[in-house]
Design a protein that fits this description.
The chain is 43% helix and 12% strand. By secondary structure, the protein is an alpha/beta fold. The protein has a domain of 261 residues: Type I PLP-dependent aspartate aminotransferase-like (Major domain) (Aspartate Aminotransferase, domain 2, 3-Layer(aba) Sandwich). Helix 6 packs across helix 8.
């Protein structure tokens, strides 16, 4: 059976990753020379030997993001069920542009998305779709906000709009909005970076000041973006207060919950997302904290009529709609041709159940707490405050530029550098794997402390 074969293959890969290096030591010239020497594609090669070679390259020449001591960006270890799902999807290769082409796949996605939307507190009639990731979802939100605010935007574009729309987001919000502002034609100058408080949460008073000032100067405030789990520090903006502000000022409220949105499944974390149910739209990536392979973004909007208006499409070569009870993804999202993205989350949810998934997330939260405790014990200073398993830390005399290469050389862990506001660079570690154990935490912290003391020339 395919499940047994994939399970065996995944287990073998997991063992190899866990026992191997976290960080590769390779140059681009080395990889290019290897490829040039073996693959001119002039003659066929046995698939088995090519696959073995590619797997060797992936094992040796990648940062192993599924390693239990990868404490980096939001790239998780993945569930076996989700790997089975991607295998099935590739083998059957369904086309999800229209419902008639792939009825079962479309309904599986609809069922899964409706379940997730309900956890966010969205109505049953809300629109939802799988996306390539958070950037596409965030772009969708901006397009929908423009469509609601300006009735002639869809047909005549930005030139028909009086005033210049503006988007408000915190200094720590995701940089994808710079791209979104560019490609939608709003321009990067339309973004307003709102101040944050000491916990890196959006300052509502500064938001109000900027909106009033922009209106006074002839700009047209369009939308506010709240972040549920910022990339650098794991901060969660005051979503409820932001929702009230947006309602009172007629602004679209979008919540970028690409990483932190998964916390909605955990009763102990759910209160930290209070107010997300009042959003006009939400981004959430299953390929982050829901532990499925990339890419598996999700986009939710409580206004299906606006979605239909923004993404409407009709052409003779596509099958006609199957009826009012169905929605064709090509006419309700930015994408046209699309693979069966949602199966990986469907299978993983079906295998683990809601409580099982919550347990996976809670485990990572506990490992985050263990990391904080171990760092404090060894003399590190924690510089961020979040209920999520993302830890920013430093110590006196630390030079991150010297520290990180040495840490990577020792293969202790993969962590990154972050800069919070105008402060000095600090270290950032995020638990992204449900396979991380207390032993992994202790080993990583011991090696980080040893490396820091040696690089600072401090003697124990």
């Amino acid at each position: 059976m395919i499940v047994d074969a994939v399970r065996q293959a995944v287990a073998e890969i997991e063992r190899g990753v866990a026992d191997g290096n976290v960080v590769p030591h390779v140059t681009c010239d080395e990889i290019r020379a290897h490829l040039d020497s073996r693959y001119d594609f002039a003659a066929p090669q046995p698939l088995e030997s090519v696959v073995a070679d590619v797997e060797g390259m992936m094992r040796r020449w990648h940062v192993q993001v599924t390693h239990p001591r990868y404490f980096g960006l939001f790239n998780p270890s993945v569930t076996t069920a989700s790997v089975v799902a991607d295998t099935l999807t590739a083998a059957y290769n369904p086309q999800l542009a229209s419902w008639r082409t792939s009825p079962a796949a479309n309904e599986i996605e609809r069922h899964t998305l409706r379940w997730v939307a309900a956890r966010f507190g969205f109505p049953r009639a809300a629109s939802a779709t799988f996306t390539a990731g958070g950037a596409e979802s965030n772009q969708s939100a901006v397009v929908l906000a423009l469509t609601r605010a300006y009735s002639n935007y869809g047909d005549e574009g930005l030139r028909a709009i009086s005033g210049r729309p503006t988007i408000y987001l915190s200094h720590d919000a995701h940089d994808s909005f710079n791209k979104v502002a560019h490609v939608t034609g709003l321009g990067r100058g339309s973004l307003r970076r709102v101040a944050v408080d000491r916990d890196r949460r959006m300052d509502i008073a500064d938001l109000a000041r900027q909106v009033v000032e922009d209106r006074r100067n002839g700009w047209s405030p369009l939308m506010v973006v709240g972040t549920a789990g910022t990339t650098a520090a794991g901060a969660i903006d005051p979503l409820r207060a932001m929702a009230r502000f947006c309602r009172s000022h007629g602004l679209w409220f979008h919540v970028d919950a690409a990483w932190g949105g998964a916390a909605i499944l955990v009763p102990g974390l759910r209160p930290h997302l209070d107010g997300i149910d009042a959003a006009d739209s939400i981004s959430c990536d299953a390929h982050k904290w829901l532990s499925v392979p990339m890419g598996a973004g999700m986009f939710f909007c409580r206004h299906p009529r606006i979605v239909s208006e923004a993404f409407r499409a009709a052409t003779a070569y596509m099958p006609p709609p199957a009826g009012e009870a169905t929605v064709d993804p090509y006419a309700s999202s930015l994408q046209w041709s699309r693979r069966f993205i949602g199966l990986k989350l469907f299978l993983a949810l079906a295998e683990h159940g809601e409580h099982g998934y919550a347990a996976l997330i809670e485990r990572q939260v506990r490992m985050g707490d263990a990391l904080r405790a171990a760092l404090r014990r060894d003399g590190w200073t924690i510089v961020n405050d979040t209920p999520l398993p993302l830890v920013c830390f430093t110590r006196d005399g630390l030079d991150t530029r010297a520290f990180l290469p040495e840490l990577y050389r020792r293969q202790a862990a993969w962590i990154s550098e972050a800069r919070l506001g105008d402060g000095e660079p600090v270290l950032r570690a995020c638990i992204t794997s449900f396979r991380t154990t207390p032993a992994d935490i202790e080993r990583a912290v011991a090696e980080m402390t040893r490396t820091a003391l040696e690089s600072c020339e401090v003697h124990i």
